Description:
Strand content: 15-25%
Mean pLDDT: 92
Distance between the termini: 33 Å
Number of strands: 15
Radius of gyration: 20 Å
Largest sheet: 8 strands, antiparallel
Order of helices and strands: EEEEEEEEEEEHEHEEHHHHEHHH
Amino acid sequence: MADHFSGPRILFDPASDVADVFAFPSPDRPGCLVLVLDVFPAAAPTSLFSDAITYRFRIRPVARATERAAFTVGETEYGLDFTFAAPGRIPGSDEPVQIGTCTTPSGEQVLFQVGHEAPTEAEGLRIFAGPRLDPFFIDLAGVLAADATQKLAFRPGADNVLEGMNVLSIVVEVDPEVVFGLDCGPLLGVVGETVTSGGRPVRLERMGRPEIKNVVLASKSHDPVNSDLEIRDLYNEEDAFAVRPDYAGAYRARFDANLAFFDRLDGELVWPPDDRGAHPLTELLLADFLVVDVSKPFSEDSCFEIETALLAGRPHTTCGGRAPNDDIVDTLYTLLVGGVDGPRISDGVDQATRPATHTFPYLVAPNPNPPDLMTVMTTLLAPPEPEEEAA
């Protein structure tokens, strides 16, 4: 799944578990950038944001590198930090009330109430935080079966494993010129993180592109160098804009091995390794942040378009980034298995429980009766069903 339950450690702290990150130009306010951070996968109606965690967006200017298929990252960083107080109660009500604070790059602090449907507005900002219906969709059984059988195992009309589930969402619409400054674009790299609050913050989890951890890096069985290493907890600690050299070799080995596995799923080789055995996508995906062009209008299903244009040596034509309705499982498998312009590969799940809208806060109201967490985990951990024998 996009980034839900992406590592053993994060399972014990769902409030810090980043489920999804989205970055896209606003469909109804041209010139504005929408950032979404979903946390707490399979959230219950009583779930709350943690008062011990900072929920953070990190944004940096990026540019296409001239000598290789990669992006150079600028030194200037624009951060938006969201913190939450312990819940209180309004006199005469049994419902808990939680107040949040958004801290902008200039240090301005904007207060808002969690779950309040009307957006909180400040100069250059609109803010919402609260429970929403999970916008992600995937045939997880098909993903697991492909790893087990080493061939594509998607089927038409598959079930979305996240059907009816909720998350806690932070949605902020930013006027980049007002909040970040006039020289901030047009290409921006975006990462969502959870870090401990306090004087010495520790990164708990981070996410850029979808399915890097749970699809590309998850399997250990294809990696001859680190076959006994659960690499995702280490990877979560990394700065997406500057991976530590200490573990970079381990990450590259896992990327090289697993990307080669995906290339073999249809029996054809479209990504031949270089003379050192490195996969052509490894360096691009290791720099794990969304890339969005704020000068272009909103368009759905443009996730990875800037990256594929870079790989093909052509100008990109869309805003890139990632919108909630983008069918990124299809897009990712098409790229990994079929190449830049390969035939579309579908996992058989085409939309979420209810598609996102084109108006703030974009994600739709939560399911009042979501599945419980134990049901969710039982489904996730169930072994793939064996394929039917051919008649």
